[in-house]
């Protein structure tokens, strides 16, 4: 099955899975996370609570509540605090594709 990239309102996408940039702890965040939880209903949050804490780089799939997608993949990415915080770039500028 080929990979398909869809540009649409994420809560209307009928797909096997959608990916959510999640918080490390099972709380409803802002932006897309808040929109997903509002549209999916309480089953999505209950499923995320059962997963528990996720570390940066980890991911977990849950049911999608009443969304048309079958699953939501919750993944936690690093928080960029800016160049002044002297964070390393990821991926490193020397990395090649």
Tell me what you see in this structure:
By secondary structure, this protein is of the alpha+beta class. A three-stranded mixed beta sheet has the order 1-3-2, with helices on one face. A hairpin with a 7-residue loop joins strand 2 and strand 3. The mean pLDDT is 86.
Strand order in the sheet with the most strands? 1-3-2
- What overall form do the CA principal axes indicate? globular
Please tally the helical runs, counting DSSP H or I stretches of 4 or more residues.
2
| Helix and strand sequence | EHHEE
Strand content: 15-25%
What Rg, in angstroms, do the CA atoms define?
Answer: 15 Å
What fraction, in percent, of the residue positions are helical? Answer: 10-25%
| Main β-sheet description | 3 strands, mixed
Q: How far apart are the first and last residues' alpha carbons, in Å?
A: 23 Å
Instruction: Note poorly predicted spans.
Output: none
Structural class: alpha+beta
The count of strands amounts to: 3
Give the overall average pLDDT: 86
Summarize the structure.
The chain has 97 residues and is an alpha+beta fold.
